[in-house]
Design goal:
- The structure is a single chain.
- The model has no long low-confidence stretch (mean pLDDT 87).
- Strand 7 and strand 8 form a beta hairpin.
- The longest helix is centred in the C-terminal third of the chain and has 15 residues.
- The strands form three sheets. The chain has a five-stranded parallel β-sheet, with helices on both faces. The protein has a four-stranded antiparallel β-sheet with strand order 6-7-8-9, with helices on one face.
- It is globular and about 55 Å long.
- It has two domains: 117 residues, Rossmann fold (3-Layer(aba) Sandwich); 93 residues, Arc Repressor Mutant, subunit A, CATH 1.10.10.10.
- With 229 residues, the protein is an alpha/beta fold.
- 40% of the residues lie in helices and 20% in strands.
Amino acid sequence: MGEDGHILIVDDDVRLRGLLSRFLTERGFRVTTAETAAEARDRLRFMQPDLIVLDVMMPGESGIELITRLRREGLTLPVILLTARGAPEDRIAGFEAGADDYLPKPFAPDELVLRIRAILRRAAPPAQPIGPVQLGDAIFDPERGELRSPDGTKRLTGGELALLAALAQRPGTVLSREEIAAALAMDDTSERAIDVQVTRLRRKIERDPREPRFLHTVRGRGYVLKPGH
């Protein structure tokens, strides 16, 4: 088994699939491949990779449709989308569906490796341990990566967990969009891309995401987490 993690590659392009599989294997990853969304779901029934590299444009069920379905079913592991369509609205659609990063084709395989390692690295415990954070009737435990409420543990995607951990490490301090992008290992620091990540997190921690109690927008500066009962 590769030391750097287990990667599931989902792409209908046999040449690219083989190239990425060899490239990642040579760099210490364990790799499983799938040609279609349906085949990927079959793989996921029997294994839990550390990250999915997912092509957007596939025959039948698209990558966007697959990630939307997986997130709805509660799958939280990180996903990097690959696509020949790199327009801002395409990237936003990917983030809104639940992607953690977005890499337009063509790309250098080394860049994909850097993105993968950055996303896997952010899942590591923070350098300075954070104690549990109270968010109303829910408690965020950074060490366990859990958001517990009276209704049970809420599932957080890798991106949501990284964002909440970054904010919780500096409660009451405004984080700029650039700082948030760094915490999420995102290259896209556009206002809309970061706002999508914040909106997704608010749906998990706020009773009314339109009137947030804990995760506040500071116009022109960024976002701040204000824990409390």
